[in-house]
Specification:
mainly alpha
Length: about 425
């Protein structure tokens, strides 16, 4: 018995190192290797379950926050009681399991410190830069082979499996935020390195040519400028650089220029009119498709706003809604989600799902005065909030990991001694 206790104590003595290694592994594998990412998440959960000393006190803010984050998963569980497509529902529950597991792991332990959090973020930033370099090299090779400059933009730069342009865009934006955070107080030599990485990631974000990602890039730069740069001269110079960067990018990057022209085109010929059989037989831009999806999805959400259609019935209900609206381009040849996380939750789980998600995003901000959080955390929450207006993060594996992992490590580092 004594030998068992001694062995258990020796294992427990390595807990901080194990958590750090596994979290760093998750940071790399979420970009490069989905299977390894899943295995590392399972290993982290297994370590927590078997060896970690757990703390659960509902009277503490930390535990209440953990329950709030986990509630987003239980909303999906509740939606299983009235879903028709149970197989799809069980798949969605398995896909979203990280939304429950990461808050449980980090909300009931006291392992992470700010020093460890910064270490995890540094490795995640390195992984993002490596992935961006590889993607650009691949795009450049395709450009040399085809002579088409489009090979260096948009979806052609997404070369790793299970990734989307907006997901890799969020990776870049989080990494950019961390680099800007480290800029303050860095030495001159370090600033040269940080500045080079900031410029590179900014270029890659522009080449990805996702409109909302570019908007978030602008918001992040402005946030850190007004947070850390105190002189009016510095702010004015930064503003000039930002405006010039945007103008040059929209003028020189074909995909970005095309998206801007599409965004500012309000002609009826570029609009899908629901209720009319006119969506087939031509090519539609992203804006036209999204507007039609939002219109049809909103009608569906309005009919089921209280409880939703159920966890497993969201896509089937959307396909039927598209069909009823004679939006055949979507109903018969594609399977589009709502392209809006709030609408997607409203359709699936009703107003409760949307309310819980909003609380998960905004409660940490309200708690900031009492529990000062990492400066990058505010940016992460802002990103999730803004990107959710045009994308569905919580129905794709990497989006679920991205949200649940980073939301948890940021939130539950706040309630401990910052570390050294």
């Amino acid at each position: 018995m004594k030998n068992t206790s001694s062995l258990y104590a020796r294992i427990r003595s390595h807990e901080t190192g194990v958590y750090t290694i596994l979290c760093i592994g998750i940071s790399y594998s979420v970009i490069f290797w989905t299977l390894l990412n899943s295995l590392l998440c399972i290993a982290l959960f297994a370590w927590w379950l078997l060896f970690s000393e757990k703390q659960f006190d509902i009277s503490t803010t930390k535990t209440r926050l953990m329950v709030l984050f986990a509630s987003l998963y239980f909303v999906s569980v509740a939606g299983m009681f009235y879903t028709s497509n149970s197989s799809e529902g069980w798949f969605r529950l398995q896909e979203k399991s990280a939304i429950l597991l990461f808050p449980l792991i980090f909300g009931t332990t006291s392992v992470l410190t700010t020093r460890i959090l910064n270490k995890i973020l540094a490795h995640f930033t390195a992984a993002t830069i490596i992935a961006s370099i590889i993607s650009l090299c691949y795009g450049f090779i395709q450009f040399l082979r085809t002579g088409r400059i489009e090979m260096l933009t948009y979806q052609r730069l997404v070369v790793f499996p299970d990734l989307y342009t907006y997901i890799i865009g969020i990776f870049c934006l989080i990494s950019l935020s961390f680099l800007l955070y480290r800029w303050r107080g860095a030495s001159k030599k370090t600033r040269i390195l940080l500045g080079s990485a900031i410029i590179f990631l900014s270029l890659y974000i522009f080449l990805l040519s996702v409109r909302l990602t570019v908007v978030c890039w602008l918001l992040i730069i402005l946030y850190f400028v007004f947070k850390y740069e105190t002189t009016a001269r510095q702010r004015i110079l930064t503003g000039i650089v930002l405006v010039l960067s945007l103008v040059v990018s929209f003028k020189t990057i074909p995909t970005l220029r095309k998206q801007w022209e599409e965004l500012t085109n309000f002609s009826k010929s570029d609009t899908i009119i629901l209720g009319e059989d006119d969506s087939l037989g031509r090519t539609w831009g992203g804006k036209a498709i999204r507007v039609a999806i939002w219109e049809s999805s909103s009608k569906l959400a309005a009919r089921h706003w209280l409880t939703g259609v159920g966890t497993g019935d969201v896509q089937d209900s959307l396909q039927q809604s598209y069909e009823d609206d004679k939006f055949y381009f979507a109903s018969r040849y594609n399977r589009y989600n709502a392209h809006n996380q709030y609408l997607q939750l409203l359709i699936g789980n009703g107003v409760t799902g949307v309310l819980v998600f909003l609380l998960c995003l905004f409660v940490p901000v309200f708690l900031a005065k009492k529990y000062p959080f990492h400066p990058v955390y505010f940016v992460v929450l802002l990103l999730f909030c803004v990107i959710s207006f045009s994308e569905v993060l919580l129905d794709v594996n990497k989006g679920v990991i991205l949200y649940s992992f980073f939301n948890s490590i940021f939130a539950f580092t706040n309630y401990k001694n910052p570390g050294t």
